[in-house]
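fyi for ur records
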Amino acid sequence: MDLAALTATEQKVLLDTGKASCRELLADCRTRAEMTEPVVNAIPTVHWDTAERLASRLDNDPTLLEGEPLRGLVTAFKDLVDTAGVRTTRGSLVFEDRVPSEDAPLIAHLRRCGVVPVGKTNTPEFGKGSHTFNPVLGLTRNPWDPTRSAGGSSGGAAVGLACGSLSIADGSDLGGSLRNPAAFNAVVGFRPTTGSIPHDVNPDPRTDQPITGPMGRTVADIALLLGVMSASEVSIEPVTTAPRVAFSPDLGDLPVDPDIRTATARAVEALADAGWEVEEACPDLTGADRCFEDLRALFQTFHMAPLVDDERVKATARYEIRLGLSLNADRIAAAVATEGRIRSDWDRFFVEGRFDAFLSPTTQVPPFPVGLEWVDEIDGVPLDHYTHWMRSCSRITVTGAPSASLPAGFTDGGLPVGVQFAGRRHDDAALVALLCAAEEVFGTAPAPDIGALATLDPRTLPPGPLG
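which gave:
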């Protein structure tokens, strides 16, 4: 049996019942990584020996972390998050040799819950942008087509999951960093309700949009990890009535690639054929784009202000820091007020519209060529900033609502497409249940062709933006 081919919840059953050992699962995940990493570069920092020692201890001592919900599952932590004793670069030359002495609160919590960590998943520099490349650890490639982007910023996590190298993965999301790579790699990424993860550290109440969340191959997998991250059990309750879903193909006015429009329309048709009530409607998101950009820039000032003129940092990141430092009190207050209005309008939309969820494309484009730094045009519409192609996610971020990308098929060219479901604020469990029902309609996504990746010569592939 290839344990790495199973979902995390399936792996957990075998581990809990003694039908598989932690060492066996780790060995199969390592085999997957060794087959695929020369091409995809999803987990560039690894410590297999440390992981093997922990797996052996878990097998040899059944009382060690007994009953913990993630006991024995294989993971790697996002390279943005401090991990004690492990190189944590944040994808930047500024931190290329940094080895933290302490775990971040979330990492410490996940360790206590029994994971077997094998290293660090790759990310764009400082997590900026949804294309995973950086000058320290290189480019992460899409396993469905290694000439294409893996998305980001949780691109390494999404690819490691898709390849079977990891059971589960932590991610983080501000403008789509969980949802975009999930869509690009045919896995599930869940952004919880803003402020609902107790292990997140927020420097200022005005900048509560960044959040950590779970990634997995199935909805049951993310439900397992979400329960751990949120310190509350997330059981999947069956959906007993036909879900009622509002749908917008473009969130009002966004440019969307024709391949995404076609694949999303197929997904909507499949839901309708399965008895779902789907009505075209969109909540009022007026002002969300500027609100997001201003509060995102403000957030940078709390962490990155000293780097504003550091030429080791990529220009797009320095631009955001400079924008944040330029914001005056009135503009910040206006952004906070806009955010509050949008969240109130979102709440009313669900009450007055009687909807269970809001459905839209996760991404406005399919995975794009690795040589592009960012998408500067969609369906003939030019874009002038490196985050503007991500607005299908960032607009939902402003609402504070839980949202997720669920695999919903492929383009005619074979690239993964995800659809985004967003639900009522503070009712993440209901959204998880609805996702489970949608997954039954779409089916779980297949794995990419691991054998083809294993035999591919990475020297034949086009380079990323840094050459």
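The two ends are 40 Å apart (CA to CA). thats all i got for now
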